[in-house]
Amino acid sequence: MSKLIALDLPASDRFVDALDRAWNAGDAVLPLDQRVAPALRHSIARAFGASFIQSSDSLTKLSGGSEMEPDEALVIATSGSTGEPKGVVHTHASLGAAAHASTVALGSTSKDHWLACIPVSHIGGFSVVTRARHSGCSLTLHETFDASRCESAARSGCTHVSLVPTALKRIDPYLFQRILLGGQAAPPDLPRNVTVTYGSTETGGGVVYDGVALPGVEVRIRDGEIEVKSPTLFSRYIGGNKAEQDGWFATGDSGHFSNGRLEV
Q1: In terms of pTM, does the model score above 0.85?
Q2: Are 62 and 52 in contact (CB under 8 A)?
Q3: Measured between alpha carbons, how far is 105 from 121 in angstroms, rounded to an integer?
Q4: Which of 10, 38, 110, 247 is the most buried (most CB within 10 A)?
C-alpha cells in the first residue's frame, strides 16, 4: 500500500521534483499551505494521515500514518469556509481526466507556457501543475502572487495563468493569451481572453468554463442545487466516504441554466 507524503514546500521546481519522486514511488501527496504557521501545517498533515513531511531540507517520519489505495495520488484540503477543512482524495485517473478536459476545452498545446502563482495547496493552483504536465508544455511557478512579477512572467513568455478576481484587477490581463478565473464571483465586463470557471476541490477544479460543462462532464440542477457527474470527481474524503449518489455529486451551490449556460 502507498503512503501519504505531505509536501511542506512553496511552489517551485523543488515542489515539482518532490511531487515526481512521490508519484514515481507509488505514493500520494498532500500539499501544505505555506501561508499558515508551521505548527498548523504539521497538524493538518497528521490529521489527514501523512506518513512523512517533506520540507526543503529534511524528510520527517510521522507516527500513525494511514495507508492509501494504489491509484490515490492527491489529498488536498477544502477551504474550510463552512467548517473544518476536509481532506479530499483524488486519484491519478481523476486528475488526468481534469487536465485532459481542460486542455481540450482551451485548445492547449505543448507550445503554451503556464504560470502557477496561486497556492498549489488548493486545487486551482495544483491544477495548473497537472495541466502543464498533461499537455507537455512549460511551467513556471511563483511562491506567491505578486502583480509585477506576474506581468514580468507574461513578458518573458508565459501565455496562460489561473487567477482569482482580486489578482486579475492588479495586472494587465492582455499580457496573457488565456486567463482562467475562479475562486470568487467574477466581475462584469471581463476581457475576451478571460475564461470564468466553476468547480470545487471535489470536482478536481473547474469543470464548467463560461457556463458550459467541459467534455465528459454532466451538470444538472436538482431542487435548485448544482450537481455534477464527471470522471474528474474525487474518490473519497479522508476519514469518510464519497458524498455522491448514483455518480452525482451535490455541490451545495445553488444555480440555474439560462440560455443553455450554467449560472451559479
Answers
A1: yes
A2: yes
A3: 24
A4: 10
